[in-house]
Amino acid sequence: MPHQHTGIDKAQILTEALPYIQRFSGKTLVVKYGGNAMTDPALESSFARDIVLLKTVGLNPIVVHGGGPQVDAMLKQLGRESDRIDGMRVTDAATMEVVEMVLGGSVNKSIVNLINQHGGRAIGLTGKDGNLIRARKLYMEKTLENGSVQQIDLGQVGTVQGVKTDVLEMFCSSDFIPVIAPLGVDEDGNTYNINADLVAGKVAEALGAEKLILLTNIAGVLDEDKNLLTGLSTQEVDRLIESGVIYGGMIPKVGCALDAVKGGVVSAHIVDGRVPHATLLEIFTDHGVGTLITNRNKAAQ
């Protein structure tokens, strides 16, 4: 008898997914992939299968990836350490070369390869391809004890000035799945390393995507009692940052999600990338596995 039950469970799962598949068919999703999900072979495989499945049932997934640990490992191998200021990598020209080689080369192609092995047709890009990501230099602002603000030069670290969507639209309307390394270029042709969450958010915004999904190494946004907050409006997020419930490394991530939603993305999800098939569970099930941020209070106000 047990076989029959698992069969029924599977059928229930599939029927639960159907309305979501119908609702999101033809819609674009931008998925930021990084952290643990990127270094654990089982999670890598489940991620790649999720992306292929999304494409197969008619959604248009776009992957933006990070790769900080891989860059660190390569720098170490080359006997070069890079300095960090408040967690931000100081990127001189020599370091930038390694960053580009690792992010635009080995990491990007390994994700492309993985998706292709699972039956997808991934194509790797950096922000340099087709002028996809226009960057400008990012200065980090540090408030000193006397209250004055100091601008810190991090070298070739950038922020997104603009995204050219034609390249991505071309791939999405065909069978291809774009996999983007977060490198951008300014009008003078200088290359910049850009935070992958930021790139994912700006790409989602530029495309008017249905969803931005940020895979992270934590369960999502937690409240004071460490319970997962599953649904938040933009107003609630602002309040949680002010009251200090959302703090530290979570602030920029949530900030990214918030900006995307305020910029026209229908919903942003902060999802635990350590859960196998987290992306599918978040999109196709009633409960999801992360924190969903929407502008849903807009109409009420």
Structure, explained:
Its main location: cytoplasm. One of its GO terms (molecular function) is ATP binding. The chain has a single domain (27-294), classed as Acetylglutamate kinase-like (Carbamate kinase, 3-Layer(aba) Sandwich), CATH 3.40.1160. The protein has nine helices and 14 strands. The protein has helices at residues 2-24, 41-56, 68-77, 93-117, 166-172, 196-207, 234-242, 250-262, 278-284; strands spanning 28-33, 60-65, 84-85, 88-89, 122-126, 133-143, 149-163, 177-181, 183-185, 191-194, 211-216, 231-233, 267-272, 290-294. It has an eight-stranded mixed sheet with strand order 5-8-2-1-11-13-14-12, sandwiched between helices. The longest helix has 25 residues, at 93-117.
Q: What would you say about this model in short?
A:
This protein is of the alpha/beta class. 41% of the residues lie in helices and 26% in strands.
